[in-house]
Amino acid sequence: MPALLAVLALVVTMVRVPAGMLPAAASTLTVAQAISAQSGTGTVHGYVVGQPTATTTVLFSAFTGDTAIAIADSSSETDPGDMLYVQVTSAYRTTFGLRSNPGLMRDPITVTGALTAYFTHPGLKSPSAMTLGGSTPTPTPTGSTGSYYAAAAGKSGESLKNALHVIISSGVTTLSYDAVWNALKATDQDPANSANVILLYSGTSRSKSLNGGDAGDWNREHVWAKSHGDFGTAAGPGTDLHHLRPEDVRVNSTRDNKDFDNGGAAVSDAPGNRTDADSWEPRAAVKGDVARMIFYMAVRYEGGDAWPDLEVDDATGSGTAPRLGRLSALRQWNQQDPPDAFEKRRNELIYSSYQRNRNPFIDHPEWATSIFG
């Protein structure tokens, strides 16, 4: 009898379930979340998109084996950086190996196992359950409605700031600095070209694969310069996606750790931007984005969690003090450049797939006036 029960259990875990018929558990992760986590055991929902054969190589046809599959949050994903590599152990190969079952491509799948590197790539190994079907996990609440901001209702000024600090500091998932690379490839993806990211200041579209430190590469721009508070790149403000954006290496170096203000000379590598000895003026299309990122940082980091108390002031050239300005310019930019679709999508993705917190000034730009005057 024990042997028969074991066989029945295996059959149940391997049965094909039509898409949408199997509800995702509350703890189910998206692929993006699993890529960022990479520790402990997790249940992940995604779509079968190929067979990984090396760190950056995935087969999309002519499959050679049944021992691994790549899954992603989109059934049409082709960038290995946005995929989770899943080990297919012997118990599951007959049903889930792509050489034996090429028709699995683009099917939804839910997998439980150890979140750990596979092929020196974010992965899931030693699966304890693999099921076809399931539904994409939907975090709740989402957007600027619902109960997320309930504790801030009816508040203004310092009371509003304090309420928002608690809201956006609770239940937060922090990323490693290395994990930021893959996250930015998703949060800042070019809407017109899924292989590229949009650079913040220059506004150009550049290949996701050109991330690094060489000329022509893009790297991780800290909009709140990390020297203003000296918080470095440890998990926390130094890896907070709400103020990290892709930017050209040279442009990032030119901006350096300058405050934000109007005026200066034109930046040749980033048309529309201006700079002087201690300040940077971004192009018009992202002035509001920059302001709302700075406001977020000043509310999120209040000095009570081992990080410095970040404050916005109406000055430039504050050096390593945990301050950034110029407040009067940032207030103006928030009004002139309201949140657009790109900024709203980015906020939603950071909340749903990475950090589990939101930038309230994207959801409610008017709160910046209430808190910062």
TrEMBL record:
Domain Endonuclease YhcR N-terminal residue range list: 29-131
Domain of life: Bacteria
Pfam families assigned: DUF6359 (PF19886), Endonuclease_1 (PF04231)
SUPFAM superfamilies in UniProt: His-Me finger endonucleases
Sequence segments annotated as region (Disordered): 253-278
Keyword Cell cycle appears in the UniProt entry: no
Gene Ontology MF, one: nuclease activity
Signal peptide: 1-19
Annotated keywords: Hydrolase, Nuclease, Signal
Hydrolase as UniProt keyword: yes
Protein name in UniProt: Endonuclease YhcR N-terminal domain-containing protein
